[in-house]
Write a structure and sequence with these properties.
The structure is a single chain. The chain has 678 residues and is α+β, with helices and mostly antiparallel strands. The strands form ten sheets. The protein has a four-stranded antiparallel β-sheet with strand order 1-33-32-31. A four-stranded antiparallel β-sheet has the order 2-3-4-5, with no helix packed on it. The chain has a four-stranded antiparallel β-sheet with strand order 6-7-8-9, with no helix packed on it. The longest helix is centred in the first third of the chain and has 17 residues. The protein is globular, with a radius of gyration of 26 Å. 47% of the residues are buried.
Length: 678
């Protein structure tokens, strides 16, 4: 019996049926489809790594760009090459984009030769060549609202804007990040909001992701140009690179930040491991209300652009002085979110609002909670976290679930887990101020996040509120740890206390950061969700995307050759598939249906769709997802030699210091090297 290609039939019906929108909603990505996702075909034609993929608007064409300097246009549903052309680039192609409303005729490419080329696919000719960048071009972005305009991001730190209607056919500088961050900054990725094309997201090296209002910047430049030509200045005035209010910052993995609660400050560790923080990909949700970031050297983060969350900032009483975004009288000065003051506590926590608590759970959620408790007892921390997350998704006002998940995060100890645990503790305390365990765990999290004086005050506050616990073994142990840290790091602690506002490390201590940039960083917003399990330390073009017409899933490639699929709202990992012999970099979901194109180091494009229910074997599925995720945590924290061996195809076992409980793994053979199976 011939196997029916469901995705092809759906696509053809979509194109032919005038009622396609209703049909599309009916066939959007669902959990059964995700569970049956498998390899449909491999498209062969490139002779080098495939670094970029792009669907056209209708979803019946797929473009790819490669190290071989060629672009190929595919019919993915017939698995055929339609057009192959040399782009004229002299180095690796990193980005391909169809120009909107061009009838799929115009393709834009950016490459490592610093050039941006525009091609007419009907005649297979390069019709425009732009040479304005001075370093590798990493991403191109387009906007349906402006069909003749596009943008490029390059490692010279500049975002350029192009208008093909201009007779000069030259680009202009829209954003120059070197004016904010110095000459070492590199722009890596950018994306335009699909629902409001006035907003452009930019990722670069470093922890900050920037969101700009293009319209405000262009209007500001015009007004400044007019005022400059109309008047003669007798003294030099410093013009702002962008107007006030045109830029917003979001913090994903802030290793370079002091005095915020956003992940541990690990500068010495970070420098020793050579883990460079860089946003390798940014994209907006289909409705334009969320921003997804794949942070190299870190995790995948989701930011809510509608309900903005300030990072949790911990301020001792004498530090509560005027500073942009500081907490004053329990409220943040920027008006974004209210602070909370724990009863009888002097430490103020910015970022959450008091909510009512509900302790009773429906029977099915009580079962899930018990399953999570059982997993915790078996020391299966990741399984416990996923079950607690499932419960929280359905009962978001239950303090017990947040407190329990915090405990599981603290036991697992993956990168960022202590900050997520701290967030859960604070959430539990907003729901139930008398939550004893959440209050104690909060003190432990502060200590683990290097907020030693704040941890001591939080612990003292805990002892005052719960005197019966003041001399427990756990309390005495934490007290001893905190005082030992204070004794050995007195000077560091005093330096932190002397600084009354949030400040950030620059990329290079030799370069100064303008005050405007510091203010924008201080006003940065926190993430909503974090997705763990993949590894992104080897390449700086690794993508993460929304999957589904409503963006209900998140997908990302990984250095282990797999790609990962998470539920967006629960953050739970639901599927891992082997997508490349080495590294998966690109994942581009079809614009309408459960169909996915991936590529990486292999010179092929792979297509994935839900396989027929009768197809019982799927050799691409990674069955033990928890072990795969744990191995990637080890990979992220491996030393450079181990990373080199891993990338050559070896598997390292027994990495000391990264056992399942976060402690030294004494029982394994340290440094043992095994061949990775093909």
């Amino acid at each position: 019996m011939t196997t029916v290609n469901i995705t092809r039939d759906i696509l053809h019906r979509q194109i032919r049926d005038k009622r396609a929108s209703g049909f599309q909603r009916f066939y959007h990505v669902t959990d059964p489809f995700i569970k049956r996702l498998g390899l449909e075909a491999e498209l062969q034609g490139h002779t080098g790594c495939v670094n970029c993929l792009e669907w056209n608007e209708r979803g019946d064409l797929l473009a790819s760009g490669s190290d071989d300097q060629h672009a190929i246009i595919w019919d993915p549903f017939r698995h055929k090459k339609l057009t192959t052309m040399h782009t004229g680039h002299a180095a690796n192609i990193f980005s391909v984009k169809f120009l909107p409303h061009s009838g799929d005729r115009i393709l834009v490419t950016g490459a490592a030769d610093t050039k941006v080329h525009v091609h007419d696919l009907t005649v297979k000719e390069t019709i425009h060549m732009f040479s304005d960048h001075t370093n590798r071009v990493k991403r191109i972005a387009t906007a349906p609202m402006w069909p003749n305009t596009f943008w490029s991001a390059a490692e010279d730190g500049i975002i350029r804007q192009y208008d093909l209607r201009e007779s000069s056919k030259r680009s202009e500088v829209l954003i120059d990040l070197t004016e904010f961050c110095g000459q070492l900054v590199e722009a890596k990725c950018l994306a335009v909001n699909p629902r409001d094309n006035n907003y452009l997201a930019v990722g670069a090296n470093g922890p900050f992701v920037r969101l700009y209002d293009i319209r405000m910047i262009n209007n500001y430049r015009k007004s400044m140009s007019q005022s400059t030509s109309a008047a003669v200045h007798t003294f030099c005035e410093r013009q702002k690179p962008i107007p006030d209010g045109a830029g917003q910052y979001y913090v994903a993995g802030a290793y370079n930040i002091e005095f915020t609660g956003h992940l541990p400050v690990k500068l010495p560790d970070y420098n020793n491991r050579l883990r460079v923080l860089v946003a390798t990909y940014v994209t907006f949700s289909p409705d334009g209300t969320e921003l997804l970031v794949n942070m190299g050297g870190e995790q995948v983060y989701l930011f809510d652009l509608t309900f903005k969350q300030r990072p949790y900032t911990f301020l001792l009483p004498k530090k509560c002085q005027s500073s942009t975004g500081d907490v004053q009288n329990g409220k943040t000065t920027n008006g974004v979110s209210n602070g909370i003051v724990l009863p009888n506590s002097h430490i103020r926590f910015a970022g959450s609002k008091m909510q009512s608590s509900s302790t009773d759970l429906p029977a099915h959620l009580e079962t899930i909670k018990q399953q999570a408790n059982d997993a915790f007892a078996r020391q299966q921390w990741t399984q416990a976290i996923q079950l607690y997350s499932l419960g929280i998704h359905q009962a978001s006002c239950n303090a017990m679930l947040y407190g329990n998940r915090a405990a599981a995060y603290m036991k697992r100890k993956w990168d960022g887990d202590h900050y997520d645990a701290l967030r859960d503790c604070l959430k539990a305390l907003t729901l139930n101020p008398g939550h004893l365990k959440a209050h104690f765990r909060l003190a432990r999290c502060l200590f683990e996040l290097k907020y030693v004086p704040e941890a001591l005050e939080c612990l003292d506050d805990f002892k005052g509120k719960f005197p019966e616990q003041a001399h427990s073994s756990a309390c005495d142990s934490l007290d001893k740890d905190i005082k030992a840290a204070l004794f050995t790091k007195t000077e560091t602690a005093e330096d932190k206390k002397a600084n009354s506002s949030i400040r950030f490390h620059s990329f290079s201590r030799k370069e100064s950061i303008p005050e405007d940039e510091l203010v924008l960083r201080e006003r940065s917003f926190d993430y909503k969700h974090r997705y763990c399990g993949h590894c992104n330390t080897t390449t700086d073009i690794k993508e993460a995307n929304f999957f589904g017409s409503k963006g209900q899933y998140i997908v990302s490639g990984s250095d282990d050759g797999s790609f990962f699929i998470w539920e967006k709202e629960t953050t739970n990992l639901v599927r891992i598939l082997q997508g490349d012999e080495s590294i998966v970099n690109c994942l581009q979901p079809h614009p309408s249906y459960c169909f996915l194109a991936t590529s990486g180091i292999d010179p092929v494009v792979r297509l994935w769709n839900p396989r027929p229910e009768t197809e019982t074997e799927n050799g691409r599925v990674v069955e033990d997802m928890e072990s795969a995720a744990q191995a990637n945590q080890r990979r992220m924290n491996a030393d450079p030699l181990e990373v080199m061996l891993l990338n050559m195809g070896y598997r390292i076992t027994g990495l000391r210091g990264v056992g399942p409980d976060g402690s030294d793994d004494e029982d394994s053979s340290e440094g043992q090297v095994q061949c990775r199976p093909s």
